[in-house]
């Protein structure tokens, strides 16, 4: 089908995070400035150099039926929970193609899913290897392979909603969730789908990933003060805190949403992409690649920087990454950066790796919808190199009149840079 360049809007949101088991409780936690970071309990974490993480506020076992949960990796469990909320929030009560008198309907061939994970079913892989070693071959779960596949979350969400236009899983480390949403936008714009369920998920709170990240000197070791450990832009920041959960949005062509009378949160203007080509794990220190992604976004969308009022920053709480991102934004946006209220929500949720772009997209959409930017917590002494307006203390009211826009940045190991732009309707 030839490109149509259709307008794309957000009609549904869903989340399960360290702050709450749905999008409403997560948003409430963000506005309250509440940390979701906690000590890790249990013998298997006792000897680790990092013994804190932002675990899910509501465990999937409390939500999903046991027969379903035992067939899904934890990352897929989170994705299904968030997708169910987003699907219902968009006004859909049944899978695509089902006859319904209570909700909206769509043909399966016009529906897609794009759910990303940076690591995939790592807990399944590691736990089942332990089963193999300790209990033998016959005790390994027959569900292991579909559970550990990185495309498992997207495939299972696709099965839930009966999506046939395409089920996809971009993997670009911590940029995965944002890239999934950008890919979903292109599916709609090119006419391949009318509706796409998109987002990111991650569940990697396991001794091996934690030990590996810790040995890279990437994680905070502030075990004695979990709630203060994730501190973007602060002089005392010493690395990110691992989180888990999922954030999912329902994207829809504007004409399809209008035809069914759907509530619209905002418009998705588009995405900007680039690669650093610098180092497999370290950010490019000048922010060159980030600047290229933001410039690509402006070029592709025609977004006027004067209209930008909010940024949900990548801001993981690493010494190099936080400053490189803002240097890049200053290079591209110049003085327009001064009127952008910046929130670093990882200060509360921790870093969900491939799920970060999904959850932070939900936060960005809600910030525009409510015209309210969440605060950044734990910012006691701002770094001397931070030359920008960081929201701290209380939520910040955004411009009350006229159209406003916001961007959400996500960057990943390997040099992946993704920035997404949204506008009020």
Fold blueprint:
Blueprint: E1 8-16, H1 23-32, E2 38-39, E3 52-53, H2 66-69, H3 74-89, E4 111-116, H4 122-135, H5 144-148, H6 152-161, E5 166-168, H7 176-189, E6 195-202, H8 207-215, E7 245-253, H9 254-259, E8 266-275, H10 288-301, E9 308-312, H11 319-333, E10 341-343, H12 346-349, H13 356-370, E11 372-373, E12 396-397, E13 405-412, E14 416-423
Parallel strand pairs: 4-5, 4-6, 9-10, 9-13
Antiparallel strand pairs: 1-7, 1-8, 2-3, 6-7, 8-14, 11-12, 13-14
Helix pairs in contact: 3-6, 7-13, 10-11
Explained architecture:
The chain is α/β, with parallel strands linked by helices and 425 residues long. The protein has 13 helices and 14 strands. The strands form 3 sheets. It has a 10-stranded mixed sheet, sandwiched between helices. Helix 3 packs parallel to helix 6 and helix 7 crosses helix 13. The radius of gyration is 20 Å and the shape is globular. It starts with 7 loop residues before the first strand and ends with a strand. The model has no long low-confidence stretch (mean pLDDT 96).
Specify the overall morphology: globular
What profile does the largest beta sheet have? Answer: 10 strands, mixed
Share of residues in strands: 15-25%
pLDDT average, as an integer? 96
Give the low-pLDDT segments.
none
Radius of gyration: 20 Å
Structural class, judged by helices and strands? alpha/beta
Quaternary class:
single chain
Helix content: 25-40%
* Strand order across the largest sheet: 5-4-6-7-1-8-14-13-9-10
- The end-to-end span amounts to 28 Å
| Beta strands, count | 14
Which series of helices and strands comes N to C? EHEEHHEHHHEHEHEHEHEHEHHEEEE
Number of DSSP helical runs: 13
